[in-house]
Design goal:
about 80 residues, alpha+beta, Glutaredoxin, 3 helices, about 40% helix, about 20% strand, globular
Length: about 80
């Protein structure tokens, strides 16, 4: 049986102190993800706000489920609960 790979988008502000933790959590999980720099990409910022209903980052979307304004520990816990870690 082939393992399904989740689609992950990380909406990141590179100047935010929480962003490195989110990237570390995703890297440690060995999951591929797309980084969207919301400070340079206005469309990504608008998409994040529309999906998360807030302006704070980082936000991580995994298979359409938005984890809004999270840190690495929260992302790791969510992945573990879903059996992705």
């Amino acid at each position: 049986m082939e393992e399904r790979v989740p689609v992950i988008k990380a909406y990141i502000n590179p100047y935010c102190p929480w962003s490195p933790g989110v990237r570390t959590a995703l890297d440690n999980a060995g999951l591929a993800y797309e980084i969207l720099d919301i400070t340079r990409n206005k469309d990504a910022f608008s998409e994040m706000v529309e999906k998360s209903r807030q302006y704070s980052s980082p936000c991580v979307e995994i298979d359409g489920h938005m984890l809004a304004d999270v840190g690495g520990e929260e992302v790791e816990a969510w992945l573990r609960q879903r059996g992705l870690l």
